[in-house]
Amino acid sequence: MTAPSVTITPRGAERLASGHVWIYRSDVASSAGAEAGVVRMVNQKKCFWGQALYSTQSQIALRFLTRESRPIDATFLAERIRGAARYRAQVAAGAHAYRLVAAEGDLLPSLIVDRYGDCLVIQTLSQGMDKFKSAVVEILQKEFAPRSILERNDAAVRALEGLPEQTGVLAGEDVGEIVVEENGVKMSFDLRHGQKTGGFLDQRENRATAANYAHGRALDCFTYTGGFALTLAPHCDSVLGIDSSADALKQAQRSQELNGFSNLEWKEANCFDFLKAADQEKLRYDLVVIDPPAFARQKSSHESALRGYKELNLRALKILSPGGYLVTCSCSYHVSEADLLGVVAEAALDAHRTVTVVERRTQSRDHPILLTVPETHYLKCLILRVC
Ligand SMILES: C[S@@+](CC[C@H](N)C(=O)[O-])C[C@H]1O[C@@H](n2cnc3c(N)ncnc32)[C@H](O)[C@@H]1O
Known about the structure:
Blueprint: E1 5-8, H1 10-17, E2 22-24, E3 28-30, E4 37-42, E5 48-54, E6 60-66, H2 74-91, E7 97-102, E8 111-116, E9 119-124, H3 127-131, H4 133-144, E10 148-153, H5 157-160, E11 166-172, E12 177-182, E13 185-190, H6 204-211, E14 217-221, H7 227-232, E15 238-243, H8 246-259, E16 264-268, H9 271-280, E17 285-290, H10 302-318, E18 320-330, H11 337-350, E19 355-362, E20 380-386
Parallel strand pairs: 1-4, 9-10, 14-15, 14-17, 15-16, 17-18
Antiparallel strand pairs: 1-3, 2-6, 4-5, 5-6, 7-8, 8-9, 10-11, 12-13, 18-20, 19-20
Helix pairs in contact: 2-4, 9-10, 10-11
The chain binds S-adenosylmethionine (SAM).
């Protein structure tokens, strides 16, 4: 059966020609009663532009699938999922918790599949992909034979699609906590209640890299379940992890116990307040990690986000010992690497510190960045050294 057609405007066609994978509703000329699911995109002269997932509700009306005219079915999805897995076999070899399918980054729009040991956690974040949920589960069972497949469809973006929040077991066992090794350290993840699908897998490589610079006293601000702190611990005299979430810190404590680390402490606090007090009390650290939540979720909060990043980085730079390292991150797509470098430079000047840029990093490679889709490059991580 041929999929229904949706007509795109010349501007929509230009966007596709430039390599983008989203068409906004304002660039849909006619959808002629198309329902959520796979559609054929045509221009106003009826020329075929490829196939996409159509949403009846989201401002992102079309999510590009392929330029080919072929059935979009379990065979198509399985090919793409196998392709994603082949890439992970290269870039996540030896990892036990990583993103197996990264939505647009793997040309499987709005499908997330995260692997935690022998368990998989999935999210179907658009109307079109949600319709393929059971097909995806069948493919995952066949390809990977996981112990469990859980659904974490409680992400806020589902509301933009008119989709309900849903969580639960889709196949296999009902797994809550799982312990996996990441960068040689045991980490406990709560797959049912943790943020995202349980953990911030996009920082896996940055955590390992930060450990290369770790020494003395380290401070991990916005530690969540202790990802950076636990990875730094074997290389430091002491590490303090701070977060405002008591539940996240309980999980961090659990991982600490699993590893038997005695040089780690956790503190429930607002990082802005802690850093201010630390400076006043003249506390000093040899490595500070700043990994806050996205401050600029919309373009309109760009300026206030920059003020937030500047304040955190200024305070962090003030408490670093000479020769110390700052690992500073932003996961706001609307804050570019240039923006982050700019605010850290301002912070360094205000703090009267000379700073060198040691590494400019991004999300782990299992979260691919599409060259022509800037939105897929969201995480920035700078490693800086204070002279
Ligand atoms: C991006 S996550 C950090 C991820 C973590 N670094 C990791 O590698 O897993 C941001 C964390 O900041 C915490 N948070 C948000 N606002 C905070 C604040 N003002 N002070 C302290 N923690 C905060 C959240 O609870 C969340 O755990």
